[in-house]
UniProtKB/TrEMBL annotation:
Family the entry assigns: Belongs to the argininosuccinate synthase family. Type 1 subfamily.
One biological process term in Gene Ontology: urea cycle
Gene3D superfamilies xref list: Argininosuccinate synthetase, chain A, domain 2 (3.90.1260.10), HUPs (3.40.50.620), Single helix bin (1.20.5.470)
Annotated protein name in UniProt: Argininosuccinate synthase
Gene Ontology MF annotations: argininosuccinate synthase activity; ATP binding
Species whose genome carries this gene: Herbiconiux flava
Domain Arginosuccinate synthase C-terminal span(s) in chain numbering: 174-390
Catalysed reactions, as listed in the record: L-citrulline + L-aspartate + ATP = 2-(N(omega)-L-arginino)succinate + AMP + diphosphate + H(+)
Length: 398
């Protein structure tokens, strides 16, 4: 068998031209691998055929939507994962899954290398290659755009000269990456952080300023995993899809942020993640009801570290696995219902209930029947503030 390279294939200009470009530069046969993570758009069969038409010796399509939801989105939700408190890891979560199938396909087909369409300026090159290195350390990673000087203008000329069936021939005003967890938009006029987003760049969400009646939804969780909407049980994937439509109708989950990339530069990004932001808000609220104060407080720091690790491409790293063990342990009592109102760009929690709740009405109430012994508080405060009192005396004496 001739030497082969397996290319993570999107069906777009760069990876389509990258098939021939890789073959010319390396002398290897190219296998195209497209992974469906709920990105929508074109039919996957059309993408598979395009790869063959562009010169791939084989074209493989994997439907990984449920795997993505169950094995990647669920851990992110349990971790309430938001990079820099704002970005719900839309692209960062899909990369280790794609890289996993990239490595496994390479092993299965006897390839000695894999390839991706990333540039040298972004995070995804790190995520792909770090994941492949963790799964199959003997594989070599190649990036045609970064390593083989495949620029956009060269790609267009190459596609025209070779009569490749490419849909786009001119540079899109935006760079877009999307999956079922959300949509990321960058470049074009967005590169000036002073420029406001325009309505045309959104696809998952409608304008929250348009007057419409609010919607209400009740989300049921079992051990941190969403299992039902309004009492009807669905797969995690279906719940995310349903909430994308319902929360997206109200403009929930629009995020405009300047974030710190792993490669050391700041990047202006616009995200829309209606289901992700609604689910994270609901899950956090249920944790507030069911987790002890010290566990909840400590977990917030773990969540930040978890999000950083995933953003930085270390999904398969040892620290990430250890943090997963802690997070999963915290979820054993995170079961119950959260009611949310969706309206005007906001997903607002309006009710919460759980058989595992730590909320005690008799302790919390200020009405007759209160079982909290307020006489205990005076002594507690004396002991609690004792270190402050002793150190204050020292400070005043000096």
């Amino acid at each position: 068998m001739a030497d082969r390279v397996v290319l993570a294939y999107s069906g777009g200009l760069d990876t389509s031209v990258g098939i021939g470009w890789l073959k010319d530069a390396t002398g290897k046969e190219v296998v195209a691998l497209a992974v469906d993570v709920g990105q929508g758009g074109e039919d996957m069969e059309a993408i598979r055929q395009r790869a063959l038409d562009c010169g791939a010796v084989e074209s493989v399509v994997i439907d990984a939507k449920d795997e993505f939801a169950d094995d990647y989105l669920v851990p992110a939700l349990k971790a309430n994962a938001l990079y820099q408190k704002r970005y719900p890891l839309v692209s960062a979560l899909s990369r280790p899954l794609i890289a996993k199938h990239l490595a496994l396909t390479a092993k299965q087909l006897g390839a000695d290398s894999v390839a991706h369409g990333c540039t040298g300026k972004g995070n995804d090159q790190v995520r792909f290659e770090a994941a492949v290195a963790a799964i199959a350390p003997d594989l070599t990673s190649v990036a045609p755009v970064r390593d083989l000087a495949l620029t956009r203008d060269k790609a267009i000329i190459y596609a025209q000269e070779h009569d490749l069936p490419i849909l786009q021939s001119k540079k899109s005003p935006y760079s877009i990456d999307q999956n079922v967890w959300g949509r990321a938009v960058e470049t074009g006029f967005l590169e000036d952080p002073w420029n406001a987003p325009i309505e045309d760049l959104y696809a998952y969400t409608q304008d929250p300023a348009i007057a419409r009646d609010a919607d209400e939804v009740t989300i049921t969780f079992e051990q941190g995993i969403p299992v039902a909407l309004d009492g009807q049980r669905f797969s995690v994937l279906r719940i995310v899809q349903e909430l994308n439509a319902l929360a997206g109708k109200h403009g929930v989950g629009r995020i405009d942020v300047v974030e710190d990339r792993l490669v050391g530069i700041k990047s202006r990004e616009v995200y829309e993640a209606p289901a992700a932001m609604a689910l994270i808000a609901a899950h956090e609220e249920l944790e507030s009801l069911t987790l002890e104060r010290d566990v909840n407080r400590y977990k917030r720091g773990v969540e930040s570290e978890w999000a950083d690790l995933v953003y930085d491409g270390l999904w398969f790293g040892g620290l990430k696995r250890s943090l997963d063990a802690f997070i999963n342990d915290t979820q054993q009592y995170v079961s119950g219902d959260i009611r949310m109102q969706l309206h005007g760009g906001r997903a607002t929690v309006t009710g919460r209930r759980s058989e595992q709740s730590l909320y005690d009405f008799d302790l919390a109430t200020y009405d007759t029947g209160d079982t909290f012994d307020q006489s205990l508080s005076k002594g507690f405060i004396e002991i609690w503030s004792l270190p402050s009192k002793i150190s204050a005396r020292r400070d005043l004496a000096n």
